[in-house]
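Cont'd.
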Amino acid sequence: MRALPGLRALPLLLLGLLAAGRAGRADGETSVSPFTSLPIREETTTKHFNSSLETPNISLTVRSSVPVEKNITLERPSNIELTCQFITSGNVNSVNVTWKKGNKQLENIHTNATGSILYTQYMFIITDSKQMGSYSCFLEEEKEQRGTFNFKVPEVQGKNKPLITYVGDSVVLICKCQHCSSLNWTWYSNNGSAQVPIDVQMNDKYEIKGTNANETRLKITHLSEDNKGSYWCRAAFPLGESEQRVELVVLSYLVPLKPFLGIAAEVVIVVAVILLYETHTQKKKKLTDDGKEFEQIEQLKSDDSNGIENNAPRHRKNESVSQ
Amino acid sequence: MAHRAEPPDGGWGWMVVLSAFFQSALVFGVLRSFGVFFVELVAAFEEQAARVSWIASIGIAVQQFGSPVGSALSTKYGPRPVVMAGGILAASGMLLASLATTLTHLYLSIGLLSGSGWALTFTPTLACLSRYFSRRRSLATGLALTGVGLSSFAFAPLFQWLVSLYAWRGALLLVSALSLHLVACGALLRPLSLMEDPVVGGPGAQLTSLLHHGPFLRYTVALTLINTGYFIPYVHLIAHLQDLDWDPLSAAFLVSVVAISDLVGRVASGWLGDAVPGPVARLLMLWTTLTGVSLALLPVAHTPTALMALAVAYGFTSGALTPVAFSVLPELVGTGRIYCGLGLVQMVESIGGLLGAPLSGYLRDVTGNYTASFVVAGSFLLAGSGILMTLPHFCSLASTSKPQDRIREAVETKVSLSKEEPEED
């Protein structure tokens, strides 16, 4: 089959999904289940099942007429086995089970029943992006019961907040992908409304480094104001692409400099006010002191004839005058 | 200006309190909130966390070891020019840091330059404050030191907001502008001449006389021991709570409660220090002992209420000992020698501060939990308070020493020193 070459690096996913299925998460979900991304156990499980052809078992349990959904991330072509488990009211023979992708009805379905529980299975191989999307199982009784499997490529995480930098500085834009293996990354900048791929060979202003397969780094040096705007990192998987936007803001150094100068001016004014106030009060004090001293000298001249003990106060006054 | 017999105890002194309040905020508040820049710098320079945290460590170390320099210069030229110069240095350090392209630039600009600026501001200001007050000294010091606690609340969100607007470079530039207010604080430090100033002489003479002063040396040892135990809970309380399976939100709430009780303790102890007659050293011993006891009991508490109560007690008592610790010194060495005295004390006690946290971390690694480190911290505090009992006039009911006593003591020390050395200072 055409899928065989794609299967050579086999399905960490499948096994992870198997493990996830074992964990019993599928049972008992009557609301939209949380995003089931490829589990972190994929690294360890790969070692065991290196190139076996085991298929993962992704299952859903539908209890009432509330539709149940499961999201699955998939990177590369794999064998898939989807199982829906319906709980019927009574007669299992008079029910009709169908699988659909969009409007197209699917073949290759196996159904069996035990008691009032109906199992239906659809096995297929995902080879390219056209086969990603939503697959649904339907049970037609009085009310229709439905389960949906959504296949998506892994999401790429960038940074939510804009990155602020300055002219002449350099910056590193990072995009990460959890639970992914080695990928092809490309970076795009925006030129007006269109995305323009960034050419690394053109000049050494741009440099793309990736320390490990899960992340990519775009280093931009010698920033100028035209470098601001949106940048996209795009990850190419065998089964599709996903991208994320990172926003860059380039400020000129004048932007924080203006508040700085404002505050510095305010400090200078405050210092001037304090020092001026002090010289003003000292002048006032000196005037009154001089006035007092004049009176005291006059008094001393009249007291001088009385005795020697007036030497001490005069001594101290001389000290204060000289200072 | 006439030499005053007594410190003014008010008047312009309250402006000095204001200046000291803003200074503690601008020096220690900035240092404590530096963690906001930490994350940004690690990402920007692509360096390890340990290497980036050296920036703050160098800054603190330079501030503490440089304290005697600030003190000596203040004795010679008065606090005002020294503090204003320090403010300009601190602001220039931050300004240059905003232009940094490597981590070494940051070590030199923030660590060395701003650190020297901070060394020239903090100690001279507190010493100046001690000279302006005698009856209300503890209250004034307590009020001034609340600046540290309040600024930690205010600056962390402020810095975060600045970083979100201007990135770390612009934010550092604006923190530099903020630090320029240290110059304004320095302008408020009007010089004051007290009667004992001409007697105690220049900085060289003062340092020599201090090193021969028995009670001063004992006090320095006591403070070093206290400092070793003092900082440990700040560093390890949250980790200890996590070990006890507290969730992060409750742990953060408890730390905030401790910070508030620390603030209350500072002001209450300041007021109490002035209201109670007798040497302030007795109150210091009381608070230190209580802090040591609450620290040592901390590992024993397991229920949330007991932990909360002990943590509040620790916050209150540790806050209470700070203003009193600064007030004891003028009583010991006199307000004439306060600049040099405070500088020396800060330098020596910083050794305790630097050793305390790593020692506690080591104990934790060896024993597996924080019991040993809290108990050791408590015992350091109790040892320090024990040495405090050997200070003079400890058991007497006499009020704080009068200026004439201090002058007499200073003259006696100078005379005995000049007998030993042939040359005059």
